[in-house]
């Protein structure tokens, strides 16, 4: 079974936000919830770099470790998903996540939170693949259709890669070798406890 | 804090929260359109969905929700890269977008705008039905009423003030077919006051570049930039304006280990990826280019053989370049001599090198001269006419190249034929109407052959004293179909125009700032709004920047009561009594002209530009066979049965009739290829020889034809003029013309058939015979470094009208006041007055403007899209930390920006950043819906206001028009900033 991962090549990312709106489009994500976002460091200064960020679908996901209701599970593809039926919107996962992935719709007064929402790697949730119920709660399930996450598929510069970890690592390695520079597979050490040597 | 990236907390900010009332929090209204598609949701109420279809879909609930969807392809409407959009449609509802892997241009990719275009169609804030302003209230009317009333009022204006008093403002958003018919409507109405966005984006490119080597378009392609060893971007920020192009630029940079040079006043998102970033003072492009050329000539890096064979006027140019030694260049531009020398060496010696530009060069008072200087640098270094080289001019809109080609313009009929009698006669033959009928529609033959009023100055044409507008009367009515008003400079003055108009018709998917500003100007009536379908609801061809034509399918039918551009044009023509003549050769069904037929008519008349070979059948075959085209060469394998040997999109010129099967021309002026493989030469468009005056008072004749250079396999191995029947006879090739072709030639000009040229021969025979001998129909000439006929034949640096360097104005003044395009251009007086009044002391900051990736153009459409609007919620101005500190301006704080004219002022947020240098401020130009600190949300028809509103950059911009095209000065003016 493939181990699905994300890899953002920061030397290619131009902060065009295609990944952000592709995600909105595919899952009809409402205003205020951002499953993916682009973060720019040294904005406007020499050395400016951007990285597209979302749930990295960590190995031994910290969100799962802290969840009081055990709503997280990891699929055979290594994708970290959760059940909105179980989620109580406590917000622990938000504090545990090193990437700021969990999002919460505001549902009432006094800052009360709704059920957590995050990137599903376009793999839906616990409901039957491709069902209406799954779509309403989690959005589209592209993986079940043999497609990869739309954010990566639509990336303007092929900076954001999604797919089997070994394959995308290989693509990145070859790229770095050919061009002679690379700032490393961003977030991989934290998420997957590995780095890509080139 | 980065104000660009505000997310949830901004929801609390007044206007946005208000505009989203009832929608923010939790999942929104029609959360899942995919479900809507199945259940026949939101749009079913419109009666477009067959009930049976809905039931069937409900039954097929098992598999993925997209099961059973139809896939349709169109082209993204947000820039000129030409990305294919792949849509999934179920029961008439656009339920999803998939990556367009097969397109050799975008290869699956999109930017933020392309990845969200589906929302444009389904937007609940679209205009739903025609409206008119009655006593200050927007009131619903039927299409019949609207068309009838508009038509009657236009006729009334015509009777009183003449046809030139109606201004027809079209759009680069239209398909070729729409833009062509809009121009044709202008011609049949009897005016040359027909313009579109090219005026304010690349009119200077078209004029400057065409005057250099023949055609004013991108010479190569986005894909071909992959071949460059040196990429230089001067006046462009493609990472935000053309994001998908960066795929080709960055991969090219990586694979070729190429130099990636960005010269710009801002350290842009593109510059962040540069191997060399050069910061310059805004408005000094010519000194930068001459500064480079000075080093090139000093060191002998120029391409001497190329210049000898293919360039005219090098000696005249050298004299101008010699004035620009490193000291003077640094004094004017601020760039150190050593850095520019390094850049010049790379560009001249690490070849092939390409020069990329967009509106940073063009939107200036010296725009035409800027692009000319850029072409000259390419010519000097022999970097034109081959892979990895050329002027890669990134156009703006998805079809601005096409709309320009089809002549939606004030200076020409379709396909650059001009306005002379011969041009009118050519088109009257193509249209099969009487030339005298067309002439009778105009006020006079003279005005029929006189360029119209540029859109940049429409309001002056309304408000200037009548004797200053060289036509029968002032402009009294504006019919605008698909053009933003906030993209035009000097908004405070445009309000006077809006107020004084007798009639304003706005045809658009959104009300636009024409509506909100018209109300602000005090109008209570005389304004109509017609809902137009987006281009995803229409079919037709669009031209990407690289000159490739792409056929877009209709993805869904026009929503609500909106109508296709073509239908609206037809309805207007019918009401005005012109339909029978205008649509003589075009099939019309239910008031909708057939796009394919319109394209066929264009094919029959567009010999001058080589749009004659791109039949709808061929274009559709290209879309169907996208996967077969090579990504780098853009060519299909020669043995393919449908598209064999073609270049993707048959980039023009695609010579001869479709039957000739010319493959298109991916790289212009490429002598390394046979003309039937897309090769070419420079176009001798300005005569075959020129008499030059020598210093001793004598004269000499100099040839303007190429010297010993010709395209591969050419039957004439030297320069040659354009082909006519006479020249074919001279060569003895006329015998190869068929009888049928000769008959047509004799019909075109019965008196002197010998004069019939490759561009006027409706049989295509002259082109066919020239091609058969490996010759380019337009001839083989030299490119001009010295472009006689232009206001500055050799580009000359001229300070911006409002410059912070008043000390330089005496040496580098703008051109003297003159009459241009029926109006006075008083730039010189304005510049002089500004210097005398010390304007630069009151307004010490240079103000420039540009694009954000999330929005496009005037931005009403993209600011209405929540997926984009969420990412950019506030209008802002970038200011350097040093300038901010001097003014007590805080990052994210509110400021007042004041401008040098009309006591203009605008309220927005400050983004304090080193992206701009000290003394420079920068604003995005996509915002609108505020004016001078006032929120105009209430001026929009209810429910159609964009989610995000803000001050327009053009509230602050000032006077300044390029003398050759009347391009507006949108890139350099002065302002002051104070904390609000």
UniProtKB/TrEMBL annotation, chain A:
InterPro entries: 4Fe4S_Fe-S-bd (IPR017896), 4Fe4S_Fe_S_CS (IPR017900), ET_IronSulfur_Cluster-Binding (IPR050954). GO terms for molecular function: 4 iron, 4 sulfur cluster binding; metal ion binding. Residues 4-34, 78-107 form the 4Fe-4S ferredoxin-type domain. SUPFAM superfamilies: 4Fe-4S ferredoxins. Keywords: 4Fe-4S, Iron, Iron-sulfur, Metal-binding. It holds the Pfam family Fer4_11. NCBIfam families: FDH3_beta. PANTHER family: PROTEIN NRFC, PROTEIN NRFC HOMOLOG. This is Formate dehydrogenase. It comes from Bradyrhizobium neotropicale.
């Amino acid at each position: 079974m493939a181990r699905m991962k994300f890899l953002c090549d920061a030397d290619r990312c131009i902060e065009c936000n295609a990944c952000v709106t592709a995600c909105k489009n595919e899952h009809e994500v409402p205003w205020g919830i951002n499953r993916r976002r682009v973060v720019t460091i040294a904005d406007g200064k020499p050395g400016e770099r951007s990285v597209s960020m979302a749930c990295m679908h960590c190995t031994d996901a910290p969100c799962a470790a802290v969840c009081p209701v055990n709503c997280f599970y990891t699929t055979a593809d290594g994708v970290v998903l959760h059940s909105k039926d179980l989620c109580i919107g406590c917000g622990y996962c938000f504090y545990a996540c090193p990437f700021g992935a969990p999002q919460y719709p505001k549902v009432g007064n006094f800052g009360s939170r709704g059920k957590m929402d995050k990137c599903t790697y376009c793999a839906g949730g616990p409901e039957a693949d491709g069902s209406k119920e799954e779509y309403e709660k989690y959005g589209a399930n592209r993986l079940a259709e043999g497609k990869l996450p739309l954010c990566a598929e639509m990336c303007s510069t092929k900076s954001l890669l999604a797919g089997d970890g070994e394959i995308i690592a290989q693509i990145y390695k070859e790229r770095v070798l050919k061009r002679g520079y690379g700032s490393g597979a961003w977030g991989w050490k934290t998420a997957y406890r590995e780095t890509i040597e080139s | 804090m980065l104000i660009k990236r505000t997310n949830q907390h901004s929801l609390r900010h007044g206007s946005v929260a208000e505009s989203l009332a009832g929608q923010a929090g939790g999942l929104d209204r029609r959360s899942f359109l995919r479900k809507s598609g199945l259940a026949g949701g939101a749009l079913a109420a419109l009666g477009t969905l067959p009930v049976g279809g809905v039931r069937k879909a409900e039954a097929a609930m098992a598999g993925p929700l997209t099961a059973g969807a139809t896939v349709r392809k169109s082209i993204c409407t947000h820039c000129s890269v030409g990305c294919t959009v792949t849509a999934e449609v179920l029961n008439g509802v656009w339920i999803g977008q998939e990556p367009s892997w097969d397109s050799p241009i975008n290869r699956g990719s999109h930017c933020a705008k392309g990845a969200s275009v589906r929302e444009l169609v389904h937007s609940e804030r679209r205009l739903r039905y025609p409206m008119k302003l009655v006593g200050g209230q927007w009131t619903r009317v039927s299409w019949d009423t609207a068309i009838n009333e508009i038509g009657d009022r236009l006729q009334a204006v015509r009777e009183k003030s003449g046809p030139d008093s109606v201004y027809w403002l079209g759009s680069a958003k239209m398909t070729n077919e729409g833009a062509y018919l809009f121009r044709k409507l202008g011609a049949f109405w009897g005016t040359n006051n027909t313009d579109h966005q090219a005026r304010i984006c690349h009119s200077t490119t078209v004029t400057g570049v065409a005057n250099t080597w023949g055609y004013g378009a991108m010479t190569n392609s986005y894909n071909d930039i992959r071949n460059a060893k040196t990429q230089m971007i001067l006046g462009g920020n493609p990472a935000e304006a053309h994001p998908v192009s960066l795929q080709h630029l960055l991969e090219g940079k990586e694979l070729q280990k190429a130099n990636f040079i960005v010269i710009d006043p801002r350290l842009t998102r593109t510059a962040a990826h540069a191997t060399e970033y050069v910061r310059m003072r805004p408005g000094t492009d010519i000194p930068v280019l001459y500064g480079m050329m000075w080093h090139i000539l000093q060191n002998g890096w120029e391409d001497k053989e190329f210049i000898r064979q293919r360039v005219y006027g090098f000696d005249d140019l050298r004299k101008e370049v010699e004035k620009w030694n490193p000291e003077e260049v640094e004094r004017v531009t601020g760039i150190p001599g050593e850095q520019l020398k390094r850049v010049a060496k790379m560009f001249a010696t690490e070849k092939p090198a390409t020069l990329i530009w967009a509106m940073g060069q063009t939107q200036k008072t010296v725009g035409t001269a800027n692009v000319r200087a850029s072409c000259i640098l390419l010519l000097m270094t022999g970097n034109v006419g081959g892979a990895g080289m050329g002027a890669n001019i990134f156009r703006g809109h998805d079809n601005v190249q096409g709309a320009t080609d089809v002549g939606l313009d004030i200076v020409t009929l379709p396909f650059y034929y001009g306005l002379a009698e011969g041009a009118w006669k050519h088109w009257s033959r193509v249209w099969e109407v009487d030339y005298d009928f067309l002439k009778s529609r105009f006020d006079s033959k003279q005005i029929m052959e006189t360029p119209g009023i540029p859109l940049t100055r429409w309001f002056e044409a309304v408000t200037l004293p009548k004797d200053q507008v060289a036509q029968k009367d002032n402009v009294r009515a504006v019919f605008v179909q698909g053009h933003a008003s906030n993209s035009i400079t000097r908004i405070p003055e445009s309000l006077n125009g809006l107020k004084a108009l007798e009639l304003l018709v706005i045809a658009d998917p959104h009300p636009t700032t024409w509506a909100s500003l018209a109300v602000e100007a005090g109008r209570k009536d005389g304004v109509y709004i017609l809902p137009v379908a987006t281009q995803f609801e229409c079919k037709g061809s669009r031209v990407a920047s690289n000159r490739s034509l792409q056929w877009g399918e209709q993805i869904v039918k026009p929503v609500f009561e909106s109508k296709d551009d073509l239908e609206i044009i037809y309805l207007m023509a019918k009401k005005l009594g012109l339909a029978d003549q205008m649509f003589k050769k075009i099939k019309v069904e239910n008031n909708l002209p057939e796009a394919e037929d319109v394209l066929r008519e264009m094919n029959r008349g567009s010999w001058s530009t080589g749009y004659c070979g791109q039949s709808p059948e061929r274009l559709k075959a290209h879309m169907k066979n996208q996967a077969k085209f090579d990504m780098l060469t853009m060519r299909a394998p020669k043995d393919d049965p449908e598209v064999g040997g073609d270049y993707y999109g048959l980039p023009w010129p695609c010579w001869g009739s479709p039957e000739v099967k010319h493959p298109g021309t991916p790289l212009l002026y490429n002598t390394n290829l046979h003309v039937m493989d897309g090769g070419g030469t420079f176009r001798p468009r300005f005569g075959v020889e020129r008499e030059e005056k020598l210093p001793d008072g004598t004269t000499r004749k100099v040839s303007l034809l190429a010297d010993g250079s010709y395209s591969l396999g050419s039957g004439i191995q030297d320069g040659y003029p354009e082909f006519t029947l006479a020249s074919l006879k001279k060569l003895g090739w006329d015998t190869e013309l068929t009888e049928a072709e000769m008959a047509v030639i004799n019909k075109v000009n019965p008196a002197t058939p010998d004069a019939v040229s490759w561009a006027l021969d409706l049989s295509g025979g002259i082109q066919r015979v020239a091609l058969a001998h490996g010759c380019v129909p337009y001839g083989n000439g030299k490119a001009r470094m010295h472009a006689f006929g232009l206001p500055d034949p050799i580009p000359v640096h001229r300070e911006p009208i409002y410059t912070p360097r008043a000390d330089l104005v005496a040496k580098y003044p703008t051109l003297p006041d003159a009459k241009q395009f029926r109006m006075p251009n008083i730039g010189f007086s304005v510049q002089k007055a500004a210097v005398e009044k010390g304007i630069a002391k009151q307004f010490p900051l240079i103000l420039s403007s540009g694009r954000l990736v999330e929005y496009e153009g005037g931005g009403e459409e993209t600011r209405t899209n929540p997926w984009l609007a969420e990412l950019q919620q506030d209008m802002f101005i970038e200011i350097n930390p040093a300038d901010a500190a001097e003014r007590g301006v805080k990052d994210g704080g509110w400021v007042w920006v004041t401008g040098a004219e009309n006591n203009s002022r605008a309220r927005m947020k400050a983004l304090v950043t080193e992206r701009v240098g000290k003394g420079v401020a920068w604003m995005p130009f996509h915002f609108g819906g505020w004016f001078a600190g006032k929120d105009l949300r209430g001026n929009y028809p209810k429910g159609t206001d964009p989610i995000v509103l803000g001050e327009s950059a053009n509230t602050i911009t000032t006077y300044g028009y390029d003398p050759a095209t009347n391009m507006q000065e949108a890139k350099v003016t002065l302002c002051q900033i104070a904390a609000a």
